[in-house]
Specification:
The protein is mainly alpha-helical and about 270 residues long. It is built from ten helices and four strands; from the N terminus they run αααββαααααβααβ.
């Protein structure tokens, strides 16, 4: 028997069971909400101990593929892997990579105009009202707390458009870019409040133009306006000396992510 290649991972018994359960789910085309058999039934089916099965189920829960519950009606329920969980894996991967704000914006310029244009035919009145509310919240006001909330809404505007895009793969990438901007972009403490206000004012102007074009169902104009908006935002981020803060994302932070961490600038 040939020894395992150094680059090949030797799977533990629990890992092998995880793979078997994934194949079992795939073969049966089980969807979110479907229940797996009881733990004792899974043990018998896969021929493993209680400890090994619990280890495998816990691993699947950590991966976001199932939800475990206890009690008389408890067990394992299949779940759609959340964007938060996917983003956590991506951010932890990027922690060891050499990227900066301009790398993110280089990809954003390529993808988001296409996403916005694709979303236009699928925007309904509920989307337009949500976009209007987002713009209203983005109006710059004095104070750090307000600035953080406004930056949250800047990106929420883009998430609303993303949710209307029918291309799930394109939507996925643009939502992940927004999530990266939410957690990793920081600004210098040596920049005046006026510079941060300019960032917010510019976003409001661009968002209003994009919304107006979307209401007219002018997808081509929406794409052009979105490209101009992204390029302008990148310039404003340069003005506030924005940079990427590399960090590992904790489970406790996954649903409490501020949109853009811009520390309070000193008084002019």
């Amino acid at each position: 028997m040939q020894p395992a290649h150094p680059s090949q991972r030797v799977l533990k018994r629990g890992d092998l069971v995880v793979e078997q359960i994934k194949r079992w789910i795939t073969e049966r085309n089980l969807r979110p909400g479907a229940r797996l058999p009881k733990e004792v039934e899974l043990q018998a089916h896969f021929g493993v101990s209680r400890g090994t099965m619990r280890e495998a189920l816990k691993a699947l829960e950590v991966q976001g593929l199932i939800r475990l519950s206890t009690g008389p009606g408890g067990g394992a329920t299949i779940e759609a892997v959340s964007l938060d969980r996917t983003f956590q894996f991506l951010q932890n991967y990027l922690f060891f990579q050499d990227i900066d704000v301009h790398d993110i914006y280089a990809v954003r310029r390529l993808l988001e105009p296409a996403l916005a244009a694709a979303a236009v035919p699928h925007l309904g009145e509920e989307h337009f009202q949500a976009l209007e509310r987002s713009i209203a919240c983005c109006e710059p006001m004095a104070g750090t707390a307000e600035a953080l909330r406004q930056r949250t809404e800047d990106l929420h505007f883009h998430d609303i458009l993303a949710e209307a895009c029918p291309n799930a793969f394109l939507r996925f990438h643009c939502r992940l870019i927004n999530a990266l901007l939410q957690t990793l972009v920081v600004g210098s403490v040596h920049v005046s409040e006026a510079a941060y206000q300019a960032l917010g004012c510019a976003a409001v102007v661009h968002h209003r133009k994009i919304l107006a074009a979307a209401r007219k169902q002018d997808a081509a104009r929406v794409a052009r306006l979105m490209l101009a908006h992204i390029a302008d935002t990148e310039q404003h981020l340069e003005a506030v000396q924005a940079e990427l803060r590399s960090k590992l994302l904790l489970d406790s932070e996954m649903k409490l992510r501020p949109a853009m961490i811009l520390p309070a600038p000193p008084a002019p």
